[in-house]
Amino acid sequence: MKFKVGDVVRCIKKYSNNIKVGMTGTIVHYMGVGNIGIEWNEPISTGHDCERHCTHNKGYYVPHIHIELLNINWRDIL
């Protein structure tokens, strides 16, 4: 799998009524094949804490086909 815990990702395909295209977050957990726990950068109305891996109401599991890895150059930020 190309994703790992700590990766910053963006939603590229709507998932349920809560996860919309363009939302960003950080991978915090894996749950089964292809289900990735993400702490989104904004609260989710039916969000949770991804089994205590993130802030309550900001976590949501999505299939890997709904996200893409964001290439962040930390040197540009720091």
Describe the structure.
- The chain has 78 residues and is mainly beta.
- 5% of the residues lie in helices and 32% in strands.
- The protein has a single domain, classed as SH3 type barrels, CATH 2.30.30.
- The chain has a five-stranded antiparallel beta sheet with strand order 4-3-2-1-5, with no helix packed on it.
- It is globular and about 25 Å long.
- The N and C termini lie far apart (28 Å).
- The mean pLDDT is 90.
What are the salient characteristics of this protein?
5 strands; 1 helix; 78 residues; globular; SH3 type barrels; mainly beta; five-stranded antiparallel beta sheet
Uncertain ranges: none
Mean pLDDT metric: 90
User: How many β-strand stretches?
Assistant: 5
Reading off the top of the CATH hierarchy, the class is best stated as Mainly Beta
Q: Write down the Rg.
A: 12 Å
Helix share, percent: under 10%
**Largest beta-sheet details:** 5 strands, antiparallel
Q: How would you concisely characterize the structure shown here?
A:
The protein is mainly beta. It is 5% helix and 32% strand.
Would you spell out the secondary-structure blueprint of this structure?
Layout: E1 8-11, E2 24-30, E3 35-40, E4 59-63, E5 67-69, H1 74-77
Antiparallel strand pairs: 1-2, 1-5, 2-3, 3-4
